[in-house]
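fwd from M.: "can u put these together and see what the complex looks like"

so here's what she sent:
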Amino acid sequence: MKPKSDLPQGTLDLLILKVVALGPIHGYAVAQRLEQVSRGVVQVPQGSLYPALHRLENRGLLAADWKVTETGREAKFYRVTRKGQAQLEVETAGWQRLTQAVSLILKMSEGGAT
Amino acid sequence: MTWWGRLFHRRLHEEQLEKELRHHLDLHTSDLISQGYSPEEAQRQARLALGGPEQVKERCRDARGTRWLEELLQDLRFGVRMLLKSPGFTLVVVATLALGIGANTAIFGLVDALLLRPLPVVKAPGELVLLMRGNGQGTTLSYPDFTVLRERNEVLSDLALYTQAPISFGNNVHSEIVLGAMVSANYFDVLGIQPSFGRTFLPEEDRTPGAHPVVVLNHSFWQSRFNSDRTLVGQTIVLNSRRFTVVGIAPPGFDGESAPMKVSLWIPVMMMSAMRWEPTELGTQHDPLSNRQYENFGAIGRLKQGVSLTQAQVALETINRQLEQSDHSPPERRLNPNNDRSLQLISPQGILIGPIREMAVTSSRLAGATVVTVLLIACANVANLLMARGTRRRKEVAVRLAMGATRWRLIRQLLTESVLLALVGATAGVFLSYWINQLLMAFKPPFPPPFTFTLDLSFDIRTFAFTFLLAIVTAVIFGLVPALQTSKPDVLPALKDESNAEGQRVRWLNLRNALVVTQVALSLALLISTGLFLRTLRYARQIDLGFKPDHVLGVSFNLRLQGYNESKGREFYRQIVERLERTPGVQTATVTNLLPLGFMWLSAPVVPEEREVQANERIFAGDVCVGSKYFETIGTPLLRGRDFSAQDTINSPQVAIVSEKLARSLWPEIKEPGEALGKRLRVGRANPIVCEVIGVAKDSRNNIFNRIDREPEPTIYRPFAQNYSALASLLVRTDGDPRDLISDVRREVAALDENLPPQDLQPLSETVSLASWSARTGAVVLGVFGLLGLVLAAIGIYGVMSYSVSRRTREIGLRMALGAETRDVIKLIIKQGMGLTLIGAMLGVMLAVAVTRLLTSLLYGVTATDPVTFAAVVLFVISVAVLACYLPARRATRVDPMTALRCE
């Protein structure tokens, strides 16, 4: 098993928003999707997932409806609100700026002082 | 879902949370099974991945953001249950807090009404300012000053003028003196007051003197005197025997700007001369509206938008200084020789009449300090009870700590209970404060009519807000320390049921003892203050006033308002005195221009005729003009010489009787008052009159501004016959109760003039009682609260001693088993209690020494550190404490040694 990285602080909310933005989805599926998409690199502690979902719901970035799944069970499906969508865009842009900056700095140090 | 919705759908939420997590586990489990795990292993793995379900749920609840409120509700529910479980404890605490908080609510209501409440009814009261010369001594501007200030200033949107005067209101059926106000026509506009109906004054009513006899009536006056007759507007009523047209009715609740005095009607100031209401001293030829020396007006203005009080103060003071520089009249020519001539701006809040406001400020401070002290004593008591209860709850607390409750959470729980107690106590206190206020209003100053003293003590939102905040603060004061102590995490001994764990090491100076010491100290200080007031009262009763107010009835008239000229007035006073002297039961009757300790006082400079005296060295003496038999009637002994008689007329040589003090001040060389007889003096300001001294009277404390506690003022008495005053009073001495004469006086007055309203018709003793009002009220208020504090402190000592006895049951049993006598045990317990009491008493005496100095201005005949009072109160408090210790001590001796030894 490859060693898994912990999520940087504050990025869990962003990832959840992104996953939910793809379409209504319940909690377990969010966990699975995160794991699949990150190809197992990112460790999402399931225990942190639900508090994060509830926090986002509480902040009005997510909304939830109870729907019946294919298997005939009731499940809580989350979707992104308009406010959540806006927040996602802001945070995505911010994240990209940050990673670009970080990778630039990293490249610079690889190439030595140029 | 809204925030509230989430809160109230808590159960639904919990179910959904449960369902969501279950769904997750189920899906994960089945996924794992399909990956080849056994069902049991799959379930285990799924649980492991998710983490402890309770922890996850807890974190989800946290994430929801309503957690603190949920917990609060939980705490409240739990608190209510706990309080209901021990009703005795709850009742005692609630009653204690109700007394403490109720007293504070009552006093706040009073202070609010007296000092803080903005003018009712008016528009934006925060923008209004009152202009006063000097330190707020009421109406102190002249009309010419007012017009200058009004025209030249750039900080006020407008300035209005007012002054008050008794006005005779009547028809042939009924007549009375009411308090009227004369105002500039813009008065109601400046205040932003719309009439109930009709109109207020018009600009043209502010221009020509005497041209517009119109009047606006007070709403409640109109209701009571005219049965709310709407057709009254446009009709005329008679004021000072002149017809005035009613043009409007003021809105309900508006009683003028000078609370607590109630103005019954308003007329334009231009009618002032026509009202025949002008100052005695200036004579009739002077128009008060053009005389700069007649400084008897007040002004109220409205600040322009964005102008602060300080800015306005500076701007107006500049104009005032210019006015002062252009005025060269000597200060003593002014009606109010006020030394401080600077202009002050104050916001109209509560009582505005200078001396009364000062009195109110002093008594508010005193009452405030008193009730806060009572509340602190109550808090100490409740804290003690809570701590005792806390030790009984140690086990419960320990269990909760062991189960993982944080200490902060426990403190919150305990504080919630305290707040709950305080709120219930405050609710009871609000009801209690109603009764306290009723009691307090019985002690309002007995001003004679028409000066109705009205105070609106109804509760408003401010009072409720105050009480609520006070309850919360109180809860923290009495609840925090017990909560901290109770929630101390010493789980193990508590769980092991070592109920005596603490008892083994009874620290002598623990918190509980400190509370008792505080209580004793505070109540001692309160009671010493009470004692000082009681001594003052006793002194007031014993003081030699220099006259004997008992059995004397007083009544005043203002004949000028009635349109009497001098000869008609003289005739009236001559006839009424004659008629009253013939009335059965009357010993003597006389006339005087000033009632002793009444509301008015006149003084005049007096100099010996033979000597030239510098203006600033002249002696000012009370200037009382009286009829014959005055000294007999009022009971001031004539030491030497003769009384005024029928021979002293307007045509005979001017004569005077001087008080002993005046005689000695004028002629320091005389050894015996009789030597003053035959000497001559000059009296008066502008045109002094030369009089011959024909008698010397004993000194009398008859000037109210002098207060009965200070030395008598020098006084000159002159014959009424030689110095007529339209404004005068009759004094009637009777054998029996002066009240019995009231109807006789009314009848005799009506026989002479049925439209003439008698004023201040009351026994002289009531007029005098106004002078000792502050001491009396202080004694009653402090006495009630002081005793209340002592009772609470006694309960506190009793509680602590009982508690300590119950903790020492074993020890006491052991001592008795080993042969200790009942006496020894009682001594032991009392010694412990006395130790606390004595420390408390010592601190209390120190506190009292510091505090009673502040009372000095209200006390007389007794110093603020009167040793008798101090000693008596300390003894009293110690006796109460001994009693509070004795009861538990006696109980301790009844302990059966065997039971005590087994009691673990």
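replying to her w this: Chain B is about 50% helix and 15% strand.
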